[in-house]
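User: Predict the full complex structure for these chains.
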Amino acid sequence: MNQHSFPLDAIFKPEAIAVIGASDNPGKLGSHVMRSLTEGKYPGRIFPVNPGKGEILGIKTYPSLLHIPDGVDLSIIVLPAEQVPKTIRECNEKGVKGIVLITAGFKEIEDRRGESLQKEITELANRFGIKIIGPNTFGIVNLHLPLNASFTPEFSKVQKGGIGFVSQSGGMSHLFGFLSMKNQVGLSKIVGLGNRCNVDFWDMIEYLHQDRDTKVIAMYLEGLDQPRRLIEAAKRENSGKPVVAYKVGRSSTGDKASQFHTGSLAGKHEIYEAAFKQAGILTVNSSEELLDTAKGLALFCFPEGNRVAVLSGQAGPAMAACDVCEAGGLSISPFSSETQKRVDALIPPLAIRTNPVDMGPAWYNSEAIRGIVESVLEDRGMDAVLLCIMFASANRSAVGTLANSLLQIERKKPILCCISAPEGIWDEDIRRLERAGIPNYPTPERAAQTLVNLVRYKKLKR
Amino acid sequence: MNQHSFPLDAIFKPEAIAVIGASDNPGKLGSHVMRSLTEGKYPGRIFPVNPGKGEILGIKTYPSLLHIPDGVDLSIIVLPAEQVPKTIRECNEKGVKGIVLITAGFKEIEDRRGESLQKEITELANRFGIKIIGPNTFGIVNLHLPLNASFTPEFSKVQKGGIGFVSQSGGMSHLFGFLSMKNQVGLSKIVGLGNRCNVDFWDMIEYLHQDRDTKVIAMYLEGLDQPRRLIEAAKRENSGKPVVAYKVGRSSTGDKASQFHTGSLAGKHEIYEAAFKQAGILTVNSSEELLDTAKGLALFCFPEGNRVAVLSGQAGPAMAACDVCEAGGLSISPFSSETQKRVDALIPPLAIRTNPVDMGPAWYNSEAIRGIVESVLEDRGMDAVLLCIMFASANRSAVGTLANSLLQIERKKPILCCISAPEGIWDEDIRRLERAGIPNYPTPERAAQTLVNLVRYKKLKR
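Assistant: Here is the predicted structure of the two-chain assembly.
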């Protein structure tokens, strides 16, 4: 068996996995887990465990964990709750160091037995030195291995990338995964912490800080028993990886629901806000903002200040962006007189040429657009550029040409875009820009809010 | 020629159109307009006008408007600005009653001649009784005729539906069109008012109030010269059609940009907010919220009060929805004791069963889910239902079954959904629900905000 540098490697980088409760009955979660592993093209060894089966999905199946002839790093457990303590003992006997415990019916249920069962398995796992993700989780996904150790085979379709997502909710993990698919944002890990028996947010923060595949840590939280530990972990880690958090439960009902859901009260929102700030964790207010902001943070190109140049192919989207920028404390300040002169020389006086610039009259003149962007990037008074271009048939070639230009220019300031067109028109150009670190957003307001958040992050880190 | 009941019918329901400045050169807007008409399958007669061409796109072309042998209802003009006054005189001579004036270079440019030219054409049009959309517009689209009288042929791909969109910005019209394509929301009209020479927001409000194809009026505004007229028009019309407005220019730079863009100062945001409220116009804060809310208003099924039941397949999304609901003044109030008894009898005590309900344990039991939804809809203490279900492989059949149930139940309360899955899994079920008046949103937060806005609208109208 592999010598692991970090205890959680047994879960995220296992060389051999046992699926305890594997099944080929589509009505059982054990069958979905088997499909996740095989359809997700997990490159290691898979050992299904089921006393009633000789093979599952064509893979030799064992009557128990202890019958497996080789070593096992990770057990994925999908058995009824009452069988879990015995299984953890077997895991210990077998030398298993990581468990993904999908089974529900622990601390989260009304019946007191759930809580005592969770206490029992936590003590066992701690005594044996076994790390458990869960219980009451959909599982985990490591898109870089690849390993889909979850009951949702479709997670394997998420694009591989730099955002590590850690969540207290399976539902929000699925939503985040689907949003990332639709927005073509790449993720490194998707982690459902469930009831957090002995792997909690702080453990994941430590682990993801050293994980080379993860550039940004995005978290969805409801409530924590020991918020201080999260804050301490975030403060201790100095990898420079941004951490962004979406915390729900600010409403009274949300708070109550949190207690039911994962056994923790959500707690006063203001306390979390202040603590996150102290720990350098950026906060956001919705699932889409979490994805947008994580995508922006993954650039690692932060604005030095709050002065933004808004360059737009049309005036309306620029105004919408300006409203969000100013509400978020950004300044749409005037260009230097030299920059203004250069811009004035490049476009005729048919639309607004001061910041925000309406580049409409330059649609057919790619050299002018390139010149405007270059001038503004060179303006020392500008910290970032927001670029909005709406497709309009006559400007079909604009984005391709602009992409060619932008990819040649040396960029030291972030450029965020809202380039929008019907499907199939600018998709490839947008992908080219994104690959080069120029992210695109579906609306001017969302691009602007992301820039606001990048400036907030920079300030937080000062 | 058709006897029009409303002057604007000449523009939105013409039987014959002249394209003055038609072209087959893809570098000219006149060629895009020709493609919009032909590719958009306009069913009436098209007369291209261009003195240098015998035919364009295989359609006989005339040297001037006056050479056209038949009557013309609408002229789409794509000539240089200085030729426009003469062309309007010819339109009058020909009996044309509507003009879409795409040409820019009027009030919006720095050069004073632009303003005087706009004054001249406005006086001519008013004297002749000709209605002009524009100048400085991309055009108009009537998806029900169909008529795409714009320079963007791709607008023809927007789905036909009940939302009439009126905009001061071409860029925002394109964005709104693309967002509606991506979200599969149907529009009735897309109207770019441009510099509003003699057709302004109030004219469009009057026109769309009597338009049978339009159920909801959605507006994007920057600044108005006579806001009072808009308010008066909105108050006067009693068709019961909801009007929702997204007004930008609240930032100081936005205000300045507005003046440049369409010649009107954006003006103090608070004044607009108060005036809109008085006129029964619902306000929103982003382009996506405008689309989401218009889609919700198109249901014509408004909550009687602010009490919402949140039913979710997973707890996390429910909590995110609750936060938005409570922040927007909605109440996640307890069910009646009878409803609670029915819910308790339907799902085991493995997750939260009070409002918000985590229906997770009922995933495999479609009768239970149907029972829960029915009980809650019958609860007199509940005014609306928010339904969240994230796909998770094991619950693949849940939405199909739920849709079958919901379509059978008599519904008198709005049901808004966030049902989310990777592409291709639940698309058809979601479409079935939407066709039956149960709209779906991409995130729990956006579904919740739409419900907040429906309650705000209902209050506004009281």
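Chain A touches chain B through 91 residues (CB under 8 Å).
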